[in-house]
Design brief:
Layout: H1 3-7, H2 24-30, E1 42-48, E2 52-53, E3 62-68, H3 74-91, E4 94-98, E5 103-104, E6 111-119, H4 147-150, E7 161-165, E8 169-175, H5 179-203, E9 209-211, E10 222-229
Helix pairs in contact: 3-5
The structure holds flavin mononucleotide (FMN).
Residues 11-12, 14, 56, 97-101, 153-157, 188, 191-192, 195 line the site of flavin mononucleotide (FMN).
């Protein structure tokens, strides 16, 4: 299974086929997934379309409803863990889309976000089809090591991340949104940061380390979230 390859061909899938899926594929993969913050309990549930309040103009045959204990950085942890699953599903021809707008009918306090999934004929694209910020806009200087981050999905394609070079990796920052965007994006952007870190992990699996430093540079318009070694 080559998860890194999926980063360069995936797209959010919004057109699904009504085909059955062996859900053990998901349960088995989830045994090997890596969290970014240890000691936060999380779980997921597989739901069908009629168990979801769909607010998007499209729907999928299946949804993963994601739940977490609400400890510090739980949103980043959920993004990090489940983007690994999305890349795995992509590798076995199952399309996915994070769906901030939809909610389970049976909503509980631990619910975080759903991911739609299903078989599809419309879940890949050429590199030229990615609409993304330039590498020079997401870092202190252009660096091809950040291509996996550049291509990560985010809520309304907001790409709310910034990478500042260190000796062996990057300090990672999240964009501070203005008061209007913050209402919608605050929670989702923290998930986005977990997703972007999952791409950096999958692309540098053997060397990746994450830590939260106590001393770091302040960058205007951004909040420090942590540092990676790659
Ligand atoms: C946290 C999150 C929430 C999202 N919510 C929705 C959604 O409710 N509806 C939708 O159609 N797409 C949603 N998306 C998909 C984004 O619009 C998509 O990732 C982005 O436009 C980049 O496109 P790509 O995923 O095809 O690369 C969401 C993505 C993320 C990461």
């Amino acid at each position: 299974m080559n998860l890194e390859k999926q980063i360069y061909i995936r797209k959010s899938c919004r057109k699904y086929l009504d085909e059955a899926i062996d859900m053990d594929l998901i349960h088995n993969f989830m045994k090997s997934v890596k969290p970014i913050i240890n000691e936060i309990d999380y779980h997921y549930e597989i739901l069908t379309r009629d168990e979801i309040n769909v607010r998007n103009r499209w729907s999928a045959p299946y949804y993963l409803a994601l739940y977490s204990e609400k400890k510090e950085n739980y949103l980043m942890n959920i993004g990090f863990i489940f983007q690994q699953l999305c890349l795995y599903l992509q590798s076995i021809d199952i399309g996915t889309c994070w769906v901030g707008l939809d909610t389970p009918r049976n909503n509980t306090s631990e619910f975080v976000i759903p991911i739609s999934f299903g078989r599809s004929n419309d879940m890949t694209r050429e590199l030229s089809g990615f609409k993304r910020h330039n590498l020079s806009e997401i870092s202190d200087f252009e660096d091809e090591k950040l291509i996996p981050a550049q291509l990560a999905p985010s809520a309304i394609n907001s790409q709310p991340w910034y990478f500042k070079h260190t000796d062996d990796g990057f300090d990672v920052y999240q964009v501070k949104q203005n008061i209007f965007k913050r209402q919608i994006l605050k929670k989702l952007n923290s998930i986005d940061v977990g997703i972007v870190l999952a791409h950096m992990y999958v692309a540098n699996e053997n060397t990746f380390e994450f830590k939260i430093k106590t001393s770091f540079d302040d960058i205007r318009g951004y909040t420090y979230v942590g540092s990676i070694k790659i």
